[in-house]
Amino acid sequence: MQKLCEVSLEVYLAAGNPFDVVSRPEVCDRCGRVGCFHRHGTYERYVGSRVVKVARFLCVLCSLSVSLLPCFVLPYRNQLVQKVDAYFMAEQQRRVEMSDMDLLRRYWREWMGHFDTIQRDTGWPAGEPLKRKPKGYWQQIRRTAGTIEAAQRHLTGCYGISLLRRYACHKRPRHFDC
Questions:
Q1: Long-range pairs for 42-47: beta carbons < 8 A, 24 or more residues apart
Q2: 87 and 26: one domain?
Q3: What is the pLDDT of residues 62-103, one digit of tens each?
Q4: Same domain for 83 and 155?
Q5: Do 69 and 83 belong to one domain?
Q6: Cα–Cα distance between 113 and 34 in angstroms, integer?
Q7: What is the structure's pLDDT at 43?
Q8: DSSP assignment of 37-49, as one string?
Q9: Contacts of 171 (CB under 8 A, 6+ apart)
C-alpha cells in the first residue's frame, strides 16, 4: 500500500533519511489496529534527476506493507508534482519551451483521459459545480486544496485515486476523516 505524506522537497532532501521527516502510520488500514507499524526499510526512486529514498513500514499484526511517498512526487512517475503543475497551467507557447515537454505532454494526455473518472468517482470538490474541461478542473482542485500536492494527498487519502491514474496500491482507507 502507498500513502502520501506532507513534506516539502527541501526538508525531505536535507534530512537524508526519510524516517527523520515522516511519521509512521497510526492505524493499519487492513486490520484496524493502532500503533502496530515498525520501520521496514527504504527503497530508492528517481524524481527528475534526483534519487530519493522512500520510507516503508510493516504492520506487525497483519503484515501490511506501507510506503510513505512524499507528496511532491507523482506516484509511478519521474517528475515533481510542481513541474507537472507548471506544465498543465502554462499556455501552449510556454509548454513548447519546457525541457521535458514530451514526457509532460504524455502526462497531460493521461490527465485528459482520467479527470472525468476522478469527477465521477469522487464528486470532489463538493458544493460547487465541477469544471468540465481538463485545465479548468485541474485549476479547481488546485484552488480548493490550496496546492496541487494537497489535492493529490486528498484524492489518494480519501478516495484511493491519484491525479493521473488509479493504482491498486492506493486503497480507499477505512480510517480517514475526509
A1: 42/18, 43/67, 45/73, 46/78, 47/72, 47/73, 47/78, 47/79, 47/80
A2: no
A3: 999 999 999 999 999 999 999 999 999 999 889 988 888 999
A4: yes
A5: no
A6: 38
A7: 95
A8: EEEEEEEEEEETT
A9: 1, 29, 160
